[in-house]
Amino acid sequence: MVEAQVAPDEQTTLQALQETRPELAHAFTLALPQARTGVLRRLWGALWREGVIDPLRLGTPAPTLFGAVPATVVADGVAHTHPARLLAALRPTGHADRLVRELDNSVANLALALAAADLTAASLTTAAYRDLAALEQSIVDGHPLHPCCRTRIGMSTADVLAYAPEHHPTVRLRIVEVDPARWRTGGTPRPPLLPVHPWQLERALATGLVRDTGRDLPARPLMSLRTLAPLDTPGQHLKTAVEVQMTSAVRTLSAAAVHNGPLASDLVATLAARTRGLRVLRETTAATVLDAHGDPQRALGAVWRQAPPTGAFVLPLALLPHRPDLLTPAFFAQLVRLLLPALFDLLRDGVALEAHGQNTLVELRDGRPHTIWYRDLGGLHVHPGRLARAGLPMPPLIGALPTDDEDELRTKLFAAALSTVLTELVHALGDRHAGAAWDVVAGTVRDTVTDTDDRKACLADTWPLKATTAMRLADDPLQDLWCHIPNPLR
User: Fold this and answer.
1) Which of 28, 99, 219, 415 lies at 20 to 30 Å from 180 by C-alpha?
2) What are the DSSP calls for 292-320, one per residue?
3) Among residues 102, 130, 156, which one ends one of the domains?
4) Confidence class of residue 127 from pLDDT cuts 50, 70 and 90?
């Protein structure tokens, strides 16, 4: 379980910096107002669109999805500048104390990221700057809409500095040995040697299920702190289990994730090969450790995943809003015409990808979008009926991946790719280009989406969006909740 007592807020983080990193302490203090505003924007928008609070209590006008909010917002007649203090004053129904604590931690870690940022915009625009890990580590803000965008519950300030991607560390994964009788793998078999994140090592050894080999594997964390690029195997990425809550979940590996990853990789790769420009980064092996009862241990697992081609210029879509040198109206149009037909072809054939900005990458050639690379297959949905119509058998997936619900299938894709990614990119282009950008999206949908019901849903009055703040307030914060936003294509 996560060590609930470890969640540094602003003051605790500042004290830790003054003791161990005094050169960052002043910059951290200067960054706090920007961090508070960044989290406040996310929270304020969620309070409106998710119906968490009676709108009559919210004195500041309703924000647009990615639009700015004032540095001070008014609720119940009182002005607030800090998101956690705002939520504490509003006292919404549910687990408000839990979310207040998470907001405090999110603000502190976002300010720490802003203070430590050492990749300037100028360095990112050089043609030679094409290292994927460095590009991913340059993303400071975290999740674009979740108010817990930088929450790392369970990590101290020292841990965040040592392991979080925005601080550009090299992390030394530890190789531990597993009794072959307790080793369960899917996909390509691997010897019973498990890479363990150093934050997780003491906890892993305490189970008595693994033995320390003393061998390290240096690696660089990607956008997801627990997924890393090993320095000695450039064609491979590793997803590890880390019992830390980041945004909405504790980042362990379920038995379903270990079982499904290689199977889903085969399925999605088969369908992606039918598209013009989408390819999948396969999860070639997934492994977990069994306890004495034969039960898989969520905190003892790993996934071996293909990396993008060595030498290719690949970057996550989440980086594009911060790259005005790349994100022009022409680039956006090229990206949309590459991305949407492929995503909707897979949807027609029964697979809805959770194509958000972290999971979806674009390869550029001569400055133009050339190939979409998709990674992390744990969040997709598969529709057996559609798959059968596409002439493919349903793989033996378990857990939440299979669904017979057409709306649930579309929601998985729409909430990530349309409501979040494309909406953020259009916002980054600016008001002057927004109308033309949405015209490109609408035209691409009308011209290329062959399933009538999918096209109709995409052009409906609203789009779904995950209600992340309502989820954090709920008794079961892992149960998906949804809200709806106006469809800009209307």
Assistant:
1) 219
2) TTS-EEEEEEEEEEEPPPTT-EEEEGGGG
3) 156
4) very low
386-429 residue pLDDT tens: 999 999 999 999 998 999 999 999 999 999 999 999 999 999 99
14 vs 19: CA distance, rounded Å: 9
Query: Which of 373, 395, 413, 412 has the alpha carbon at shortest distance from 280?
Result: 373
Question: Per the structure block, which two tokens stand in for 265?
Answer: 């990789």
From 122, 156, 190, give the residue that closes a domain. 156
3-state SS assignment for residue 219: strand
Q: Which are the contacts of 45, defined by CB distance < 8 A and separation ≥ 6?
A: 63, 64, 65, 69, 145
Backbone angles phi, psi at 284, to 5 degrees: -75, -35
Domain that holds residue 57: 10-156
Beta strands in 110-263 (DSSP E): 152-153, 171-178, 183-187, 193-196, 210-221, 227-230, 236-240, 242-246, 249-251
Nearest Cα neighbor of 62 from 489, 485, 423, 448 is 485
